[in-house]
Amino acid sequence: MLRYPVSSFLSVLLLCAVLPVVAQQQNDKPKRDWGKLSGSVESSWGVYMKDKVLGIDEVEQSYGTNTYINLNYAIKGFRFGLQYDIYEKPMLGFDANLEGNGLRGGFAAWSNSRWDITLGTFYDQFGSGLIFRAYEEREMGINTSLAGANIHWQPTDWLSTKILAGMPRRFMTFADSWVYGVDVELALLQALVPSSDAALQIGGSWVLRDDRSDNRKTDAPAAVSAFSGRLDFTKGAFSLGGEWVSKGESMRLDPEAGIVDTGTGRALLLNAGLDLPGFGISATWRSIENMSWRQDDSSDPSMNLNYIPALTKQHKYALCSLFPHEVHDFGGETGGQIDVFGEIPVGSNPRRPLRFAVNASMYRNMERNGDTYRFMGFGGDLLFAEAGLELEKKWGPDWKTIVAGTWQRHPEASRYGFGTMEMNTQIVVGDVLWQMTPKTSLRVELQHAWSDSKDDQRWAMGLVELGFAPSWMVYISDMCNYKSYGDNIHYYDAGVSYARKFLRAQLSYGRHRAGETCSGGICRYVPEYTGFNIEVSIIL
Asked: Residue 435 half-sphere exposure, CB side, CA atoms within 13 Å?
């Protein structure tokens, strides 16, 4: 891995700080287009300390930092960009393979009304991402950009195509494999009946992964192809869609069955929705079998070429997120979720209705019989089930309340040797916002969870947040497993944040529980720790 001296890092920082000023001075000349220069610096730091309550008598890693520096320039139809990443060391919970720093992104692109051509590193997605997605999710430490060429061609308003080839990024290097892909999407009704008020999108994709690594650990084929087809129909408030993916023979891992072999993969995604004034409903069903598709089959850690998030409610309250659903993309899972949301006129002011949101989801492990799985079968073991209701009401110009209740059922491995626990958990939440003055607000949040877990039967949490518009916010919170087989621990946290124009900064200190943290349906495990978290973001 290439290492870069501190002087290079400081030089990039200086460029991000100085060049926008120069560009602005140049842009003051009205008769010549000098283009637009932009950049950003996003830096997160963790400082970790001893904590006898958590049993941390020695700190193996005293600090960590994840920093991203971007520099972009655009002039007429051309775009250029660079990204410098720094993980020295990665913050707790991020993969150790990220350690290092270097210029890991760079591209040159040109586009007009019909073409968009990129050389270098790029991100893209086919369909929903079940077959392919190259993306960055910094909160998860994910960057699966491709280094190669990406061509978008839209010969007409109703036909678009994508052709790409590249090497996928694997942590701070690039995998020793190549990915090739083609995607075509046709707006059929727009082509046949331009005056139609409905839309029918038909698309198809092909992706090939060619693993050229020397240390492959499987007899599965090095070259694996996948095909997909999708259809999306919308008319007024109604929408209906589906996507099918078929993956060729590849390494198949089923840790619950203790099996590592080879086999094909497939996936089906169905969704429907209705969005009316004051009322809406959406439903999703997905069945996936052997859809874990790694960048390569080497013995080193790798990442997926596709994107399979957990299709469950993305909670904003801590106790509802204690035990999130983690997708079983190795063997398979079947399930779905439904959302119903709307407004009910309550009170004398029609502009302040009672807003409600109901969510329910259930996922089961895919049954295996010998070498085959029962695709779309719903008779496997329960992986996750949830039902919840959230009510939001604004009572006047100064008050707003949210009340929520959630029930969850999920298996969880005991920390104290009780094996796998089939847990039922009920959570209630109360959230009150008081706008004390036009620039000062107070928010109070109370949460409680009951569980039949053998580890922690009761949880309670409280949060107080004070905002001073337009820039400052301070908060303090505490979460405690006050009825537990082990010790009762207070996971306290306090912080302050500032946001103004191009700058955002946050400082917090607290004790953090071990567990999964999730973003966009993708999760990573973070060990428990006590210490400071610092975040600084500058966007120019």
From this structure: 11
Chain CA centroid to CA 134, Å: 13
CA–CA separation, 307 vs 294, rounded Å? 11
Quick one: which of 424, 445, 425 has its CA closest to 434? 445
Report CA Rg, the chain.
Answer: 25
Residues of the chain with pLDDT under 50: 1-27
3-class DSSP state for residue 370?
coil
Residue among 276, 384, 251, 231 nearest 322 (CA) = 384
Q: pTM of this prediction?
A: 0.89
Establish whether the linkage from the previous residue to 397 is cis, with ω within 30° of 0.
Answer: no
Cis? peptide before 439, omega within 30° of 0: no
- Kind of pairing between the strands at 279-289 and 124-126: unpaired
Distance CA 207, CA 127 (A): 12
Calculate the CA 7 to chain-centre distance. 33
The answer to whether the CB of 530 falls within 8 A of the CB of 513 is: no
Cα dist from 368 to 218, 290, 333, 365, whole Å: 21, 12, 11, 9
Q: How far is CA 148 from the centre of its chain?
A: 24
374-398, pLDDT tens digit by residue?
A: 787 777 889 999 999 999 999 999 9
SS3 156: strand
